[in-house]
C-alpha cells in the first residue's frame, strides 16, 4: 500500500478538507491539477484502503467542480482526468483480471430536484409521449463492494473486484466461500441463452455486502480480541473480500446481490425488470426490493419509501438506482466516459440523531496539528453506534457555534464519517461558553503555533508524546528510512515498554531488548521455561533482522532523512529537491527562507515550514542525537567531472514487481541520476514500465496502453550505459 500512496506524497496528510476550497486567485489550470490529485487520492483511500477521508458529498462537489472547469476550458481536458474514468484502485497483492466489458460508475442525484432534472432530460432525449412513456426499474443501492463473477458452461471459474473499471483484482478463492454464490448455475436459466451460447463465458455483476448482524458480531469479536473495529459494514465487507486467507473471508458471513451482466445483448430478455427475474432463474442472489415504475411520480414514491424503510433492512443502502427499463432505449442513450446516461443513483440524505455534547478534547496528529474532537453521548446512526466526531478546527467550531453541554444533531456524512451538524439552540443550557483552542499542547506543554492565513493550530515539537507513534511509523516507512520488519504493532509495544519516545531512540535499541519484547501473543501451553499464557517474545532472529535494518537505514541519504522527519509540507519530492540543492542538514539549517524558496518545487510556504522546524530547540536536540548515533546528515559529494550525463531527460519510468539485487527505490534513484522522471502510476505519458517478478496491475495497464515494458536485464543495460536498449522505444 505504501507504494500506491507514494504518488500522493505532496498532498495533505491531516485535515483533508483544508485544500478543497480554491483560493480566488488560483488559475483554472492550477486548480484542475489540484482537483485531479485530490480526487485520485480520495478515491484511493476509499476504494483501495477502505478508509475514506471525505464524505461522498464532498467528493462529488470536487468532481463537479472539475467537470465544470474542464467544460469551460476544453484545452485543459485530459484522458488521465478522474472525469474520464471509473472510480476504483487495484492492489498488487491480487492478480489482475480484465473484465469482459468495462464496469461503469453511476452518476449521482443528490436530491429529488436533481432526479427530476435527469428524468426530464431522459424523457426529452427519448421523445417520450403519453402514448409511448418511458418505464424505469428502481433498485436499492447496496452499500457494498462491486464484484464481477464469471461462469463458463454454467460453472464458476473466476471472480474479480471492479478495480479501475477495466481491470479488477482476482478474488476467486475468497468469493467461493460466499454461501449465496452458486458454483453451478441453474440449467433452467441457462436455457434462456441463445442457442450455442451455453459454452461461452457469462460475466455477471453485483455487490458483495455484509449483513448488519454479521457486522455487529464481527466487531464484537474484534473488540474482545483488542483489535480495531470496522467503521461500517461496507469497510468490513471490502476488507473481508481482500483477505489473503480465504478461511478468514469464510468466517465473515458475506453475501451478494447480482443485478447486471457484461453483455446484455446476448440475453433473450429485453428489459431490466425481466432481466432481474432471469438472474434469479440462474440461482443467483437478487434483491427482491425492486419495482417497475411507469412515471416520475412512481419513481419518487419508491425513493421516499426506500428512505423511510432503510433502517428496517438487514443490510445498508445509501440510495436508489433508477434505470431506463428497456434495453433498446438504454442503447439509444449510451454512455459518457465514466457512466451510463440511462441510469442515475438517487443518494439518500444522511440519517440524523440528537445527542448531548459532553466535551471537546484535543487530538494531536503526526504533523503536530491540534484537532478538536467532539465527545457526545453514544447514539446509533446508519447502523452503528458513534460517540465521537472530529470538529476539524477552531474556525469550524465557531462557524457551527457548538458548545460543551449543547444538544447537537449528528449524522454520518455519506453514511460513513461521523459529523456534528450543529447545535439545537433552543436547548442550549445557561452558561454554555464558546470553546477556545488551548495556548499550549495538552500532550507536551510546548507553545501552540497559529500562522496567519492558516486554520490549523500546531505543536511544533518533534518529541511531543502525542505524535510519537505516527512519527515513528512515518520514519520507518518505505519512502523514508525503510526499516523492514518494524511495523505499527512493534512500535506500539516499544512505546508501551518505555523503550522509545522519538526517532533517535530507535538507534539505541539493542538486539537483546528487541528479542525480549513481547509480541502481543501468548503461549497456549506450558513448557520450555514458560507458563501457559506467558507473552511470546519477538525472538533473536527477528531482532537481528530489525537491528540490521536500523543499521542500514543510517545511510539512506539526505532526502529520505528529511522526508522521514515529517517536516510540514515536505513530501518525498520536496525532500529530494531540498537534498539536491543543499546537500546536508547543516547547509539547509543555515539557509534563509528566501534561499530555500528559490529551489524549484519549494516556494515560500514550504520554506517557512522548514525554517520553523529548525527553529524549534527540541527538533535540533533530536537531530543531534541522530547524528551521534551515526545517521548520515549529508549526501556524499559527487567528485567534479563524475556527474552522469542526463541522457534520460524527458522520459518517465514506472517500476513494478520485485527486482533482484536492488530495491525499486534504488533503481528509481539511479534512473533519476540519469535525468529520468520516476512515477508511481502508469498513464499515456509513461515512456517505459520496468517489470520485475510478480509484477501486478501496473504491468497489465502498461500492456493495455501499448507502453514498452522492460525486464531487469534491460534496466541494468540502461543504468550501465546511460542509453536505451535497442527496442525502438519511445
Please explain how this structure is put together:
This protein has 730 residues and is an alpha+beta fold. It has 5 domains: 2-84, Helix hairpin bin (Helix Hairpins); 96-347, DNA ligase/mRNA capping enzyme (D-amino Acid Aminotransferase, Chain A, domain 1), CATH 3.30.470; 352-449, OB fold (Dihydrolipoamide Acetyltransferase, E2P), CATH 2.40.50; 483-637, 5' to 3' exonuclease, C-terminal subdomain (DNA polymerase, domain 1); 652-721, BRCT domain (Rossmann fold, 3-Layer(aba) Sandwich). The strands form 7 sheets. It has a 5-stranded mixed sheet with strand order 2-11-10-3-9. Helix 14 (468-476) packs across helix 15 and helix 18 (558-564) crosses helix 19 (572-582). The longest helix has 21 residues, at 28-48.
Keywords:
730 residues, alpha+beta, Helix Hairpins, OB fold (Dihydrolipoamide Acetyltransferase, E2P), five-stranded antiparallel sheet, 18% strand
Provide a compact summary of the structure.
The protein is built from 26 helices and 24 strands. With 730 residues, the chain is of the alpha+beta class. The strands form seven sheets. It has a five-stranded mixed sheet.
